[in-house]
Specification:
Length: 222
Amino acid sequence: MSVHFYLVRHGQTQLNRSRHLQGITNSSLTPKGIRMAERLGRELSDIKFTAVYTSDLKRTQDTAEHIIHNNQYGTPPLYCEPNLRELSFGQFEETKSVHLMWHAVKNLGMKQLIKAFLNEEHVLEMTELFRTLPANEQIESFDHLVNRITQTLRFIGDHTPDESNVLIVTHGLILSSFIESLEGEVPLFLLDNSRASLVNYQDGEFEVEYINRIKLRKEREE
């Protein structure tokens, strides 16, 4: 018996659209981001969720509400979990991605960046490279990020009835780090906005079933 986690990155935000880092910065969903969440809600409409967990950042809560709005089983309990929040980029919060890239090339070199991007564990490599950039504060490590979400999901799984479906709405980097730690293949630019990845939890262990797409439960039972 297991618990089925539907892991979702929030819908597109204003900062996503303008290609800025947002980390722990609050940024509202764009009209496209709302449509993306509504679309996913329709895809998951016949999944009965025992509970919904989001981070403490509003974009995840708004995304969850749009998803659940379309669910035929009504609204399950919704919990805000601070340990699901995104990595803080410190002084680089709201920096344009292109400016960060220029800064990284200047300090680390193009060869090192390309090597990190092409690495099989590119989320780990890029996160650790980011931590080496000159900054005013210490950036959270990949291992700490993975441990934070892993322990949170394990706690939820251990306190949820068997064969339950749980919706988790969180962020791109922390979610991609978790999937990569389970040897899942993460896209080059992290998991997509408002697409679900299915991870099963049983006896303290996680197993990735799908990444960035959904196969409905009724199909899995056939």
